[in-house]
Amino acid sequence: MNNISNTNKQIAVVTGGASGLGLATACKLSKNGITTIIIGRNKTKLLEAQEQIGQNCFHYQFDLNKLEQIPALVQTIVKEHGSIDILVNNAGINMKKPLIEVTDEEFQEIITTNVVAVFSLSREVAKLMTEQKSGSIINISSMASQYGIPKVIAYTASKSAIEGMTKAMAVELSPLGIRVNCIAPGFIATDMSAKALNNDPERKNKVLSRTPMGKLGSPEHIADAVYYFASQNSSYVTGTILPVDGGNSIGF
User: Distances in Å between the alpha carbon of 34 and those of 78, 189, 234?
Assistant: First the structure.
């Protein structure tokens, strides 16, 4: 990987980069001179995000559930941009539903998007990074992997898998010059969290009461952590899971 002072030659890919944590992350990377590629399914949102992020941003409309097309996507990005130095696996879906009502199909859909697609994309990008002998892969998990949260069984399973994959990937890829780390966001003020909390005052009060800092985080807090892992500031850091949660994971 080039030194962070030479970031104009760095290429980052951010999945789910058109909104929420992904958009904030893409803005942060681009602002710091990293050419940033955002991937998402909604063309309108991608175009709006690209305009917001600026000239240093490109977008690819792509459904990551189409696993068989991921290798071609990676090859297209490399052909058009030269390399991939940073991969941020941010895209994910959630579903709030009692465990006994979740169907096999619903469970599988979340696992496919949140785990299998992350694996497939990371595998293809790791092939490239192995040739480069450098790279940084940053996965996004969740507080749901730290403790039991009701009515999000599939999401919890998927994010627990991401944390396990982060460690396994780091052990295998770090000797090849590729660092792999994970960020576990706490409760961040996004559209996704708003849907989960705003109609459930009891749940929201519980979240805030066990968060020592007493407030929700912002997408920019996650973006700052991603940038740390993307930069040479974390050049000797790999295989870690960093809670960015206002202390929620240790709150009482």
Answer: 15, 25, 16
- Tokens at 242, concatenated: 């960093």
pLDDT, tens only, 174-184? 999 999 999 99
Catalytic residue annotation? 155
- Strand, helix or coil for residue 32: coil
Q: pTM higher than 0.85, yes or no?
A: yes
Domains and CATH numbers, the chain: 4-191+218-242 (3.40.50.720)
Question: In the chain, where does DSSP find H-type helix?
Answer: 20-31, 43-53, 70-81, 104-111, 117-132, 153-173, 191-197, 201-209, 219-230
Q: What is the pLDDT of residues 158-169, one digit of tens each?
A: 999 999 999 999
What pLDDT is recorded for position 200? 86
Instruction: Retrieve residue 20's tokens.
Output: 């929420």
SS3 state of residue 13: strand
What is the rounded distance in angstroms from the CA atom of residue 168 to the CA atom of residue 156?
19
